[in-house]
Write a structure and sequence with these properties.
about 475 residues, GMP Synthetase, Chain A, domain 3, Rossmann fold, Helicase, Ruva Protein, domain 3, 4 domains, five-stranded parallel beta sheet, 22 helices, 8 strands, about 50% helix, binds adenosine-5'-diphosphate, binds magnesium ion
Length: about 475
């Protein structure tokens, strides 16, 4: 990763090179090359952010960049400036510096991102009418059909509060967490739907974090980035569901961080859901986690007996099923895991009684409930992966995590890294520790190698599939 100056500009000469010897454009070009080199294949942020930058002046060792907005300035300063300044010093001497010229609105108007059409104005100043993008809200999920109970009281009432006064309460962000099937998505939509009802003038956007990732990547690729940004910046209530899926996606996390800050600063409401409390989102950037604790973190806990009973009653009533108290109590007593399972029982009851015309008896209820016995789903660990790979290829774990460069060992190691990155939530750095203290770029390289080869190599694909089958069966 070391940049070697070429063509007569060497370290000892550098301080003597007068600034006039190189133009702002040339110096900037060199910086871009170094950046590209440093960021490897992940060039989307570079293209997006630096493509819109113009080097406008080089004087006295100070390179001035013209950037389209404050946001670009902040992003570049945070992510790229260290490398840029290092490169400048190498080229221009130890006093070299970077300065920014943030374009004013008037300057920015005729400016275009590279080879990009200027997006049509989507928001007209002064007339904040209806939003121009879909909210993605599912009208099916409301507060009316979200049954209140001890297990969800805080989250539910905080959700109603932020829907009533988005951005105006201390619950910003509102961070809702709970295991799968506990009602996070339902509550997230309910908040959006209620807010929409109360504030038809406000822009509301619901995104799963996968969708966020997808839209961001797409925008960066198709050069529609400023539209994407404009949309997110215009939102009054942003709901991001299942934020844990941003773990391991560095540039998307960065993007989210900036959107978060922008909205938060403008007192717009942010609602986030996750499968764990902020402090336990291992692998999520520290600074993002700390932002999450600015507001309120509210749990959705497994439903207690009373709530299970209430939910069951409600769902059965909606389906028009009459059911003896005894059977109801039996189900509520025995299906303890997720609200989703309670729903599953209701659906199967409905199927058995109406389609198969079976009589609704306690023994039928027992039969159905037994289908919902909690599956043991222990999370897959790196150790389990190492063990499986070691058995599969008959290579000792020490060798897998050691320094051996034997072809078979390296191959098995690539696969182990790939599986670990795919199925566990460890950050690259943490994975490096498991694999004998390798650095994160080595880990990333293994992962990328397997990802790229998978569609091409049948052997590789079979090995990975075999191992996944083994892992999911035995762990
Ligand atoms: P999660 O997003 O946490 O995995 P979901 O929001 O998808 O969970 O909920 C699973 C199912 O359980 C959904 O159909 C949802 O409507 C239902 N559900 C969850 N909690 C409640 C509740 N308190 N009242 C009524 N239905 C609920
Ligand atoms: Mg969900």
């Amino acid at each position: 990763m070391v940049f070697r100056p070429t063509m007569g500009i060497s370290r000892n000469l550098s301080s003597e090179v007068s600034t006039e010897a190189l133009s702002a454009q040339e110096v900037w070009q060199r910086c871009l090359e170094v950046l590209q080199h440093n960021f490897g294949s992940n060039t989307a942020p570079i293209r997006t952010f630096l493509g819109a930058v113009q080097p406008i002046q080089l004087q006295g060792g100070v390179l001035t960049l013209r950037v389209p907005s404050q946001f670009f300035y902040e992003y570049i300063e945070e992510h790229f400036s260290a490398i840029i300044v290092r490169t400048l010093r190498r080229l221009l001497g130890p006093k070299a510096r970077l300065e920014y010229h943030v374009m004013t609105a008037a300057e920015a108007a005729p400016m275009r991102l590279p080879s990009q059409e200027l997006p049509p104005p989507t928001v007209f100043p002064g007339i904040r009418s209806t939003q121009t993008f879909p909210t993605n809200l599912n009208p099916k999920y409301t507060f009316e059909n979200f049954i209140e109970g001890e297990c969800n009281r805080i989250a539910r009432s905080a959700g109603m509060t932020v829907a009533q006064r988005p951005g105006q309460t201390a619950f910003n962000p509102l961070f809702i967490y709970g295991e799968v099937g506990q009602g996070k998505t339902h509550l997230a939509h309910a908040i959006g739907n209620y807010a929409r009802l109360l504030h038809p003038d406000k822009a509301i956007l619901y995104l799963t974090s996968e969708r966020f990732t997808q839209e961001y990547t797409e925008a960066a690729r198709s050069k529609k980035f400023s539209e994407f940004l404009q949309k997110l910046h215009s939102v009054d209530l942003l709901i991001v569901d299942d934020i844990q899926f941003l773990i391991g996606k560095q540039s998307t996390q960065d993007m989210f961080f900036h959107v978060f800050n922008h909205l938060h600063q403008k007192s717009r409401q942010i609602v986030i859901t996750a499968d764990a409390p902020p402090s336990e989102l291992r692998g999520m950037e520290e600074r993002i986690i700390s932002r999450f604790s600015w507001g309120l973190a509210a749990p959705l806990m497994p439903p207690d007996y009373e709530t299970r009973l209430a939910i069951l009653r409600f769902k059965l009533q909606q389906e028009g099923i009459q059911i003896p108290e005894e059977i109801l109590a039996y189900i509520a007593e025995n299906v303890q895991s997720h609200v989703r399972d309670l729903e599953g029982v209701v659906i199967q009851l409905l199927a058995e009684t109406s389609i198969r015309r079976r009589e609704l008896t306690l023994s039928l209820a027992q039969e159905i409930v037994s289908r919902f016995k909690p599956l043991r789903t222990r999370a897959i660990t790196v150790d389990a992966i190492l063990k499986a790979v070691s058995n599969y290829f008959k290579i000792h774990i020490d060798e897998l995590t050691g320094k051996s460069r034997r072809k078979e060992v390296a191959y098995a190691r690539h696969i182990a890294v790939f599986l670990a990155r795919k199925h566990t939530r460890n950050a690259l750095k943490a994975l490096g520790e498991y694999f004998g203290g390798r650095d994160h770029s080595t880990i990333l390289h293994s992962y990328q190698w397997v990802s790229e080869m998978l569609p091409i190599s049948q052997d590789l694909s079979r090995h990975v599939q075999d191992l996944e089958r083994i892992l999911f069966r035995t762990t």
